[in-house]
Design a protein that fits this description.
This protein has 192 residues and is α/β, with parallel strands linked by helices. It has two domains: 119 residues, 3-Layer(aba) Sandwich (Beta-carbonic Anhydrase, Chain A), CATH 3.40.1050.10; 34 residues, no CATH class. The chain is 41% helix and 15% strand. The chain is built from eight helices and five strands. Strands 2-1-3-4-5 form a five-stranded mixed beta sheet, sandwiched between helices. The radius of gyration is 19 Å and the shape is globular. It catalyses: hydrogencarbonate + H(+) = CO2 + H2O. Keywords: Metal-binding, Zinc. Its cofactor is Zn(2+). It holds the Pfam family Pro_CA.
Length: 192
């Protein structure tokens, strides 16, 4: 059985037996926060449990490395929607230790792309159009610096209110322990 068929078979049972009812909530986060986290599989259940959040409490965005790399990219747009349309009034950036983005070798990734059928000409065309593909694919060397960079990108965005606390934490993917790197409340006190 294919993975898609397995999912659809389970889904039919899930819906028919009314399992969805225990997850029903509104589109507005009860705890009025948005979290930018890594897409790492270890965090799917661990991160919410370690923060004492349940379905309906938060808006969560998953990206590779919890990186906010562009002030006008889709991650930042989603944060703005959460703040202005969905009533979030705090922002948390939470990457993790032992992240795959800290070990990304862009040359090797490009080789893997070619090996899976992406023509080398396509990569050259992208590079010739002014996109530094290696920099675009690059991860980070230091998770502490990465979280500070993402927090600053959000906090200093011209469309983010200066009254919104932007926090930076790092989670241990084995224990769920949260470490505060940037306390958004303290940052707001320093602005006053």
């Amino acid at each position: 059985m294919s993975l898609l068929n397995e999912i659809l078979e389970y889904n039919e049972k899930f819906v028919n037996e009314g399992e969805y009812t225990k997850y029903q909530t509104t589109k507005y986060p009860d705890k009025k926060m948005v979290v930018v986290s890594c897409m790492d599989t270890r965090l799917v259940e661990l991160l919410p449990k370690s923060m004492n959040v349940r379905n309906g409490d938060i808006k969560i965005l998953k990206t590779a490395g919890a990186i906010v790399s562009h002030p006008f990219g889709s991650v930042m747009r989603s944060i703005l929607v959460a703040v202005y349309e969905l009533k979030a009034d705090e922002i948390y950036v939470i990457p993790h230790h032992d992240c795959g983005m800290s070990a990304v070798n862009t040359d090797e990734m490009i080789k893997k792309m070619v090996n899976r059928g992406v023509p080398e000409g396509t990569i050259s065309t992208i590079e010739n159009s002014g996109i530094d593909i290696k920099n675009w694919l690059r991860g980070f060397d230091d998770v502490y610096e990465s979280v500070k960079h993402s927090v600053n990108c959000i906090k200093n965005h011209p469309l983010i209110p200066k009254t919104i606390p932007v926090h930076g934490l790092i989670i241990a993917p084995d224990t769920g322990k949260l470490e505060v790197v940037v306390d958004g409340y303290k940052e707001l006190e320093n602005v006053k």
